[in-house]
Every structure is written in structure tokens, then in C-alpha cells.
Design brief:
The protein is an all-alpha fold. It is built from 8 helices and 2 strands; from the N terminus they run ααααααααββ. The protein has a two-stranded antiparallel ribbon. It starts with 13 loop residues before the first helix and ends with a strand.
Length: 235
């Protein structure tokens, strides 16, 4: 007995489902570094940059999965996750941009710190596979991104924070956005993330403004905010 092929069947997206779980794990590892105060001043830009890259791949997986889901609670849930991760990516990109100028070490020292911090990505077992691993950090790509972001005078860290806030506040009215037994917890989490965005809207309006902007206004305290800094009021 044969069955007709179903176009855009969810089964065809199993690769994306598996990759999504892997990318979620990598994001958790990067974010845990902020929660545990592991990153030095020189490492924060790399961590935020790496997170934006991982989230980009994660969002691509979500897009492929959402494409084949019917209008139902699972689809609404994945759409909510996509909005949230896009907001998280926008905040991470903004903070990568404003912390780049805090790096005081040489590229060689930064590279050594990079290899030490992400040593899990360079274990020799990966050499047994012909297919390159997905989601691994790339120091050369990081150095290129540093140069590009500093030269992009039109890029606005503040606008990235505003975009993140719009995405988060809009997610509270999306269909099925708060379903399940964790409704109140999710609503509280989204509210706190939106508060972070409102605070970070005081970031520079452009990369030109970054030249005279006091980065010391940013204070990382995981007891207050686990992933993102608090902006100190200027006296």
C-alpha cells in the first residue's frame, strides 16, 4: 500500500528540529556566562556577537518549521518563540556594537581567550566528521564583524533596543502567546525583558555617537539582570 507524498510535511523539517535543539543549547551556554559573571570586559563583545550568530541560525530553523505547521497552538507557540528570539538578537547586536570599543587587548590575546572560553567547540572528536559542525564560533568572522559594525555609521544601537521592545510587547497580544500552565511565568518574563529594552533605549543613536558615549554607564550585575546590563544614571 502506497501513501501519497505530502508536500511540506513536517517530517521534512526534522533536520531543523534537531538543529534547533542544538542551537538552543549553545545559546544557553553563552547566556550562562553572563549569569555566572564569567566574561571579562574583553569577552563580552565576543559573547554578544556569537549569540547573534547562533540566534540567526535558530531563527532560520524556526522559519522552516513554522512554514509547514497549520494554524494551531504549536504554530502560535513557534511564532512567539521567533518574536522573542528576534528581540533577543536585536539586544545582543546592540550590545555587541557598544562594547566593541571596550576591548583593550591585542587580537592575539583575544584569540587565545576565545580558544579558552569556547574550548568545547574545538574538541578533536569533531575531526572525525566530514560535515562541519553547525553553530560553532569563528574568530575570524568576529574580527570582520568588529570592523564592519564600527564603520557602519548608520547603525543605531538605540533603535535595536526599540525594535526588541516592540517585538516583546506585541507578543503579548499574539494568538496563543501565553498558553499552557506557565502563562503567568511567561508574562512576567516578557514584562521584565521589555523593561530591559526600555532601559537600553538610552544607548547611542548611531555609531558616530558612540565615539563620545560613556560605556561606563553600562553595569553588569547578574543579581539584577542575568544577561544584560543596567544603565547607570548619569550624575
Amino acid at each position: 500500500m502506497s501513501f501519497p507524498a505530502v508536500r511540506n510535511d513536517v517530517v521534512t523539517r526534522l533536520r531543523s528540529v534537531v538543529l534547533m535543539r542544538r542551537l538552543e543549547t549553545i545559546s544557553d551556554i553563552v547566556l550562562s556566562g553572563f549569569q555566572l559573571s564569567l566574561y571579562s570586559v574583553n569577552e563580552r563583545p565576543l559573547a554578544y556577537w556569537y549569540l547573534t550568530r547562533v540566534l540567526e541560525q535558530h531563527l532560520a530553523c524556526l522559519d522552516e518549521i513554522i512554514e509547514v505547521l497549520p494554524n494551531s497552538m504549536p504554530r502560535f507557540e513557534f511564532q512567539f518563540r521567533a518574536r522573542y528570539l528576534t528581540a533577543l538578537q536585536a539586544l545582543s547586536l546592540a550590545l555587541f556594537a557598544v562594547t566593541v570599543k571596550t576591548m583593550g587587548s591585542s587580537w592575539e590575546r583575544l584569540r587565545l581567550n576565545f580558544l579558552r572560553r569556547y574550548k568545547w567547540a574545538f574538541v578533536h572528536e569533531y575531526e572525525d566528521f566530514d560535515v562541519p559542525p553547525v553553530g560553532h564560533p569563528n574568530f575570524l568572522a568576529f574580527t570582520t564583524s568588529c570592523s564592519v559594525i564600527l564603520q557602519d555609521k548608520e547603525f543605531s544601537p538605540a533603535e535595536q533596543a526599540e525594535l526588541a521592545e516592540r517585538l516583546l510587547t506585541g507578543s503579548t497580544t499574539a494568538p496563543g502567546r501565553m498558553a499552557g500552565p506557565w502563562t503567568l511565568d511567561r508574562m512576567e518574563f516578557v514584562s521584565k525583558m521589555a523593561e530591559v529594552c526600555r532601559d537600553l533605549r538610552r544607548l547611542p543613536k548611531s555609531m558616530n555617537g558612540l565615539q563620545t558615549w560613556d560605556v561606563e554607564q553600562l553595569v553588569w550585575d547578574p543579581d539584577v539582570r542575568p544577561w544584560f546590563p543596567v544603565m547607570r544614571n548619569r550624575s
